[in-house]
User: Fold this.
Amino acid sequence: MARRRRSVMSDELKVELAKDLGFYDTVQQEGWGGIKAKDAGNMVKRAIELAERAAARE
Assistant:
């Protein structure tokens, strides 16, 4: 039985990060499963940085 994955990041944030990091073309052509593990890691790292900056402002 397949588990349903719950995404922590919104689709809009994922797209924005993929564009910023330069692999959005891969996402468009192959979907999220087509990106490299390194790119996924960089995307998570960038999301954490953004969250930390937002928390520091509050």
